[in-house]
Amino acid sequence: MSVLVTGGAGYIGSHTCVELLNSGIDVVIVDNFCNCKKSSIDRIKALTNKAFTYYECDIRDYDGMDEIFKKESIDSVIHFAGLKAVGESVYKPLEYFDNNINGTLVLLDVMRNNGCKKIVFSSSATVYGMNNISPLTEDMKVGGVTNPYGRTKLMIEEIMQDLYVSDKEWSICLLRYFNPIGAHKSGTMGEDPNGIPNNLMPYITQVAIGKLDHLGVYGDDYDTHDGTGVRDYIHVVDLALGHVKAVEKVASGTGLNIYNLGTGKGYSVLDVVKAFEKASGVKIKYEILDRRPGDIATCYSDPSKALKELGWKAERDIEEMCEDSWRWQSQNPNGYPD
Ligand code: NAD
Ligand code: UDP
After folding, report:
1. For the chain, which end, N or C, has fewer CB atoms within 10 Å of the first or last residue's CB respectively?
2. For residue 61, which ligand has an atom nearest its CA?
C-alpha cells in the first residue's frame, strides 16, 4: 500500500510517516515547507532507515499535484497540510480559507481525476464548538466555532460529507484530534513552532530551557478542579498510530467515518505544569492572566468509537508525554536545523 501524506514534514505528519514506514506502508510526502524545516525529512529517514519520496509542492498547485499522482502509484491520502494557528487565522482569514479550503478542494479534485478516492483528514475537537459538554462523542452536534481556523475544519468536514453523498465510491475518515503533545522517543523529532508558541506544551518547554521567562496561565476561575482549563492531551506517537489504523480502515472499503483521537482523560493547565516539572526536574515559573478569548473550561473526548471500530487506543500517559517533549526540546533547543 502506498500513501500520499500531505504536510508529511510537519509535526504530526512526520511522526505519522515514521509509524507508516515502520508498519511496512510506502509513503510519498508532499509539503511546501511553509511551516517546517526540510531537515525533518532527514530525521524520518534516519529513524526508519526506509526509502521514500518527497515532493516540495503546494497542494493548491493542481498541475504539480497531478504530476505526482501520475508518477507515483497512490492508493490513499492522509491530508495534514494546512495552516493551524488559531490567533493568526483571526487576522488572516483569507489566507486560511485559501490554504485550507482551496487546498483541500484542489487535492480532492486531483484525487478524483486520478481515480484515488480514499482519504484520511486531520480535523479537530474545535468542531465541537463552545456548547457541548465533555466527554465529547462523534454524534454530537458540531458548530458554534469561534475562529476562521476552526471554521476551515468544519467546512472541510462538510465538503467531504457532501462529496460522499454525491459519490459512494469514496472512503473517508475524519479524525478529530484533541491536544497532541509529546515527541518521538529518540529525541530527534518533535514540535518546532515558529516564533512564540501559542500552545501550552511548547510554551512550557521553552520556559524550561530559558528561552521564555515564564508561562502565562489563561485564567484560574473556570469551573474545573483547580480553576484552570482542562484538555485531553494525547501523545503524538499515539495519534500517529491512530492514522495507521485509519488508513487501513479507508483501504478496506467505502464509507464516511468520524473518530475522536484522544485519551478520554482531562488535565488542567496546572496539572500539566506539575507533570512537566516532575518529568524534567525543572521548575516552571508561571503567572495567572485573564482568560484567553474563545477558550472553554473543559474539553475531553470519549474515544470509545475509535477503540470499537479501529481497534485503536492511546497508550502513553501524561508523564511520558512530558518526558518526551522535554527530551526533544532539551536536545534541540533551537528546533530542527535549517
Ligand atoms: P504543522 O504545521 O506542523 O504541519 C502542517 C504541514 O503542512 C507543515 O509541514 C506545512 O509546511 C504544510 N503545509 C501547509 N500548507 C501547505 C500547502 N498549501 N501545501 C503543502 N504543504 C502545506 O501542523 P501539525 O500540528 O502537524 O498539524 C497537522 C494537521 O493537523 C493540520 O491540518 C492541523 O490543522 C491539524 N490539527 C493539529 C492540531 C495540533 O494541535 N497540532 C490539532 C488538531 C488538528
Ligand atoms: N494555555 C495557557 N497558556 C498558554 C497556552 C495555553 O494557559 O500560553 C491554556 C489554554 O487556555 C488551554 C490549554 O492551555 O486551557 C491548552 O491550550 P492550547 O492552546 O495548547 O490548546 P487548545 O485546547 O486551546 O487548542
Report:
1. C
2. 1
CB 150 within 8 A of CB 272: no
Q: What is the mean pLDDT of the chain?
A: 97
In angstroms, the CA 129 to CA 182 distance is 25
**Segment (H or E) for 31:** strand 26-31
pTM (predicted TM-score): 0.98
Q: What is the DSSP string of 233-254?
A: EEEHHHHHHHHHHHHHHHHT--
Q: Does residue 80's CB lie within 6 angstroms of at least one atom of ligand 1?
A: yes
DSSP annotation of 21 reads H
Query: Probe ligand 2: pick from 269, 271, 284, 301, max atoms within 8 Å of CB?
Result: 269
Cα 176 from Cα 195, distance rounded (Å): 26
Question: Which phi and psi (to 5°) does residue 289 adopt?
Answer: -115, 180
User: pLDDT tens for residues 132-167?
Assistant: 999 999 999 999 998 999 999 999 999 999 999 999
Look at residues 218, 305, 205, 315 and name the one whose alpha carbon lies nearest to residue 270.
Answer: 218
Catalytic residue at 259? no
Contact 333, 209 (CB under 8 A): yes
260 pocket-lining for ligand 1 (C-beta < 6 Å): no
- In degrees and rounded to multiples of 5, residue 252 shows phi and psi of -90, -5
Asked if residues 191 and 250 have their Cβ atoms less than 8 Å apart, the reply is no
Quick check: 19 and 92 in contact, CB under 8 A? no
